[in-house]
């Protein structure tokens, strides 16, 4: 292996992330010894990586987000469709204004979306996703977090049940950003669980504007429960529409929500 003292900042930061893939934390002194750099340089690397949403700085070092933040759906994987989710999240972030009250849906797409909100000021995030709430509380200094009540779904990291619905029924947001497991022109947006359908519907009902975030890999797929129809939305954010499926569905709808194709 080449001498780590000769690495560029980008190469050194890749080494740090590889370290955190194997260990739950790293200290500034670890970086100084491993890479033969000053403490100032080591701290700068950690600040840079935190600004990119790749780790969380703590006193004397940093911890891995992938280990400190479990994803709310164990059947989902944070490394599936990463480019699509990041592109969708970045586009969704352009629709957020300083001071907004946001509802962020549970799941990996919502998690990526939360990571794009670093520069937003005086926002409030309402969510039932423990991973999103945890990330926002430690990494979004200009955001307040409202965690919905309810029972933690066994084997998952999100809140569900009658108490969750009751909590959300008493709240109102400027914008809701939701996701789905599938979209079919004949069946709308669908999800696997009945509670997911109910809470997503409530997110949209209790928000001034509603946005769907969905990658085109889910087009022409139908899950068990309808969570939204096109006419329930103000905008739909996708990573592409190569076959024109979403475009045609919007054109045939009554409300014609805006289609945002992420770049």
Automatic annotation (TrEMBL):
Domain of life of the source: Bacteria
GO molecular function: DNA-binding transcription factor activity
Keyword annotations: Transcription, Transcription regulation
Domain HTH deoR-type: 9-64
Pfam families, per the entry: DeoRC (PF00455), HTH_DeoR (PF08220)
InterPro entries documented for this protein: Carb_Metab_HTH_regulators, DeoR-like_C, DeoR_HTH, NagB/RpiA_transferase-like, WH-like_DNA-bd_sf, WH_DNA-bd_sf
PROSITE patterns per UniProt: HTH_DEOR_2
Protein name, as recorded: HTH-type transcriptional repressor GlcR
Provenance organism: Collinsella aerofaciens
